[in-house]
Write a structure and sequence with these properties.
Pfam families: AA_permease (PF00324)
Main location: membrane
CATH topology: Amino acid/polyamine transporter I
CATH class: Mainly Alpha
Strand content: under 5%
Membrane topology: Multi-pass membrane protein
Distance between the termini: 14 Å
Subcellular location: Membrane
Order of helices and strands: HHHHHHHHHHHHHHHHHHHH
Radius of gyration: 22 Å
Protein name: Amino acid permease
Largest sheet: none
Structural class: mainly alpha
């Protein structure tokens, strides 16, 4: 393992409330506000609920796995560093670059989406102007201090949480007939083919939607490197996030399913570019709230900016960490006096801006770039599960006791094994119909990130002749003052 030193240390300024809200905010976004409608339309209310519960439980176990490693070794590179230390440097190299690339590309997607959302109010202003404004704003927030990022993300996430709480209250009042004039009860759960529609294949397809909705929770591992007290804040954040995610997602989908039948064509067409058919908007309108579309548009804009903000943070820290491990040029090791890896942030911004430009000048190139980052979140989750499995086995093999860990994941090895199985199922099930129809272009667009990951992995493995680290040689000792 490389000596993780740099010009300055990234400052540990993130508090427990920051980390909890960052992880929660990372998982509450357009996946809930918009895509939840398509989940219900595909698999019915029962299928959607089952998929989100299963993925929610899996994400919880995944976060406990990450928490065990993050409290033992809090670093700003998180799971890429753990893959390097506990599995194989080639895996850490591939994980780190893949994740950085994913967020750099996602940054371009988010600023493009922000422009689409702004068209709801100001349709005559060119979208690139809004995208440029959002990109500059996000860059400046991240360039100031770690605390500036944490505070901004905290309040943007708070807006989303408050929206969900209000939605749940309004939804329940509408279900029982206090609002909206007609009590629906559970009638839509037994409407036509409900609650389960389309059988197992339809439910499995919703696993994909649910998986994308929960992506971003792994940010808790990256923020651990800049937490003032990771041994306290990370476990607390993980436990809080699990219950909040399960509560918000399951109750929100339950409310939507009660009030809107799965056959509604508006659910089927849910997209981030048309807020008027967000299931949240539909429910608010059903309750008689006329300003619902405008309010939800503002919330979705907040969600998109929050995603871009988190993306800028995560990608710049990952590139910084890659440079510390000598997987990226040493140039990116430098941080400002405020502890911000500004050079890594500038590089991320340039890639995001170039990707955005291709979206205007070369739509086909843009499509493939976005496709190349599509499954990276699931690949990162796989890496976390594998790293934790190896870490715990090495920890026990070397004669350590679990009481030595500041936080330990429950139900080992069930957690990482469940995460491995479900992640593989979700990745494989992304576009089964493309294989059935031998549509090679669609297969390429859907699964491009998988071969790219293996190219990175085997490139490093072959060039540097790396091997799987024997369990008795894995460095599992706690790192109290890790240089980050």
């Amino acid at each position: 393992m490389a000596d993780r030193t740099s010009d300055n240390e990234v400052k540990r300024e993130l508090k427990t409330r920051h980390i909890s809200m960052i992880a929660l905010g990372g998982s509450i976004g357009t996946g809930l506000f918009v895509a939840s409608g398509s989940a219900i339309s595909k698999a019915g209310p029962g299928g959607a609920l089952l998929a989100y519960v299963a993925l929610g439980v899996m994400v919880y176990f995944l976060m406990t796995s990450l928490g065990e490693m993050a409290t033992n070794m809090p670093v700003s590179g998180s799971f890429a560093t753990y893959s390097t230390k506990y599995v194989d440097p080639a895996l850490g190299f591939a994980m780190g670059w893949n994740y950085w690339f994913n967020w750099a590309i996602t940054l371009a997607v988010d600023i493009s989406t922000a422009a689409l959302v702004m068209k709801f109010w100001l349709p005559n202003i060119p979208g690139w102007i809004w995208s440029t404004i959002v990109l500059i704003l996000i860059f400046l927030i991240n360039a100031l201090t770690v605390k500036a990022f944490g505070e901004t993300e905290y309040w943007m996430a708070m807006i989303k949480v408050v929206t969900v709480v209000i939605f749940l209250i309004v939804g329940v009042l509408t279900i029982v007939g206090i609002l909206g004039g007609h009590a629906t009860g559970l009638e839509n759960f037994t409407y036509k083919k409900a609650p389960f529609v389309g059988g197992v294949p339809a439910t499995l397809s919703v696993f994909v939607v649910a998986g994308f909705s929960f992506q971003g929770t792994e940010l808790v591992g990256i923020t651990a490197g800049e937490s003032a007290t990771p041994e306290k804040s990370v476990p607390k954040a993980i436990n809080q996030v699990f219950w909040r995610i399960l509560l918000f997602y399951i109750l929100a989908i339950f409310v939507i399913a009660c009030l809107i039948p799965y056959t509604s064509p508006k659910l089927l067409g849910s997209s981030a570019s048309d807020v008027s058919i967000s299931p949240f908007t539909l429910v608010f309108q059903r309750a008689g709230l006329a300003a619902a579309a405008s309010v939800m548009n503002a919330v979705i804009l907040t969600s998109v900016m929050s995603a871009a903000n988190s993306g800028m943070y995560a990608s710049s820290r990952m590139l910084y960490s890659l440079s510390l491990d000598h997987f990226a040029p040493k140039y990116f090791q430098h941080t400002t006096k405020n502890g911000v890896p500004l050079r890594a942030q500038v590089a991320t911004t340039i890639i995001g801006a170039l990707t955005f430009i291709t979206g205007i000048t070369g739509p086909e190139v843009y499509t493939w770039l976005v496709a190349a980052s599509g499954l990276t979140g699931f690949i990162a989750w796989l890496g976390i599960a594998i790293s934790h499995f190896r870490f715990r086995r090495a920890f026990i093999k070397q004669g350590h006791d679990l009481s030595e860990l500041k936080y330990h994941a429950k139900w080992f090895p069930f957690g990482p094994i469940l995460a491995l199985i479900l992640c593989i199922v979700v990745i494989a099930g992304q576009n089964v119909s493309a294989f059935a129809n031998f549509d090679w272009e669609q297969i390429g667009v859907t699964y491009l990130s998988v071969p790219l990951f293996f190219i990175l992995y085997f490139y490093y493995k072959i060039r540097y002749h790396t091997h799987l680290i024997p369990l008795d040689q894995v460095d599992v000792k706690p790192h109290k003052e890790t240089k980050i």
